[in-house]
């Protein structure tokens, strides 16, 4: 084999045994992901992107990244969710950042249910719901508050995500028992049905929780069909992927959907400092929209 041929061959194959992500393909993917997902990929993410997208190439029967880029050019929307799923990390759990739920239980839900008791409604949005742990945890505390107060308020939770795999998992509402460590024994008994037979080792969310949660696909950078207003929006561990201008636009759009005095919950490593003058910090990663 000629030296040139060996060099070309080595350039086309990665250390993992698959095709290598070339400069032109990586630059295209960086531009594409930023334009459609708001995620800014640095050069340091190149190996991560290559490794994660190799599985998509195999699933699609593509021989190289050039073919994958061509697929994105031809039909961006068809593959966008799969691409976003591959390059982002959906780390979630039930009752993660418990202080947020404590605020809901101790203060916010009782106040909202009382204020809306004469025909009002309560709406909470889980933006970036991943595999569903967050919205179902919200549904538990909401259902308990409704039962405790005897309220007939029309209360619901909207759960959205870009990832089709995550949404499929969320809709199934089936979770391995070893992923339910954040749920108290009392809540496990009340809100989950234990699996049997081939579902041994799993638990399924109670039908009552499903009644409270609507799960829909949504790209936060695209148009939003809902009009609000929401009492609260949970957008936790999502904006860490975005650059400053994208965060600013997103926070402005959230403010437009929250009622005056509504709440925005961010992740533990996220902050709105210097990004918006429409919110006040009122707790650990809890922001309240200023009254107009």
TrEMBL record:
Domain of life where this protein originates: Bacteria
EC number of the protein: 2.1.1.80
SMART domains tied to this protein: MeTrc (SM00138)
One MF term in the entry's GO annotations: methyltransferase activity
Catalytic reaction(s) noted: L-glutamyl-[protein] + S-adenosyl-L-methionine = [protein]-L-glutamate 5-O-methyl ester + S-adenosyl-L-homocysteine
Function, as annotated: Methylation of the membrane-bound methyl-accepting chemotaxis proteins (MCP) to form gamma-glutamyl methyl ester residues in MCP.
InterPro entries reported in the protein's UniProt record: Bact_Chemotaxis_MeTrfase (IPR050903), Chemotaxis_MeTrfase_CheR (IPR026024), CheR_C (IPR022642), CheR_MeTrfase (IPR000780), CheR_N (IPR022641), CheR_N_sf (IPR036804), SAM-dependent_MTases_sf (IPR029063)
Transmembrane segments: none
Domain CheR-type methyltransferase: 14-292
Keyword field: Methyltransferase, S-adenosyl-L-methionine, Transferase
GO biological process, one term: methylation
Name under which the protein is recorded: Chemotaxis protein methyltransferase
């Amino acid at each position: 084999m000629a030296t040139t041929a060996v060099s070309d061959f080595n350039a086309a194959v990665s250390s993992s045994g698959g095709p290598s992500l070339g400069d032109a393909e990586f630059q295209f993917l960086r531009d594409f992901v930023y334009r459609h997902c708001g995620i800014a990929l640095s050069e340091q993410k190149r190996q991560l992107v290559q490794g994660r997208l190799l599985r998509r190439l195999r699933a699609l029967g593509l021989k190289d990244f050039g073919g994958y880029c061509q697929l994105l050019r031809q039909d961006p929307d068809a593959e966008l969710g799969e691409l976003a799923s591959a390059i982002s990390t959906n780390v979630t759990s039930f009752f993660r950042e418990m202080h947020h739920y404590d605020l809901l239980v101790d203060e916010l839900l009782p106040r909202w249910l009382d204020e809306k008791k004469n025909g009002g409604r309560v709406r909470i949005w889980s933006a970036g719901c991943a595999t569903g742990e967050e919205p179902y945890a919200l549904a538990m505390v909401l259902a308990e508050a409704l039962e405790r107060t005897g309220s007939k308020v029309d209360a619901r939770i909207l759960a959205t995500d870009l990832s089709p795999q995550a949404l499929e998992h969320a809709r199934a509402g089936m979770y391995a028992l070893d992923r339910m460590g954040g749920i108290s024994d009392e809540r496990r008994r009340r809100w989950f049905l234990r699996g049997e037979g081939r579902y041994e080792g799993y638990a399924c969310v109670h039908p009552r929780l499903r009644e409270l949660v609507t799960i829909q696909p949504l790209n936060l950078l695209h148009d939003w069909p809902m009009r609000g207003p929401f009492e609260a929006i949970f957008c936790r561990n999502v904006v860490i992927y975005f650059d400053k201008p994208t965060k600013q636009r997103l926070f402005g759009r959230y403010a437009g959907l929250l009622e005056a005095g509504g709440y925005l919950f961010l992740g533990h490593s996220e902050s709105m400092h210097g990004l918006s003058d429409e919110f006040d910090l009122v707790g650990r990663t809890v922001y309240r929209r200023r009254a107009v």
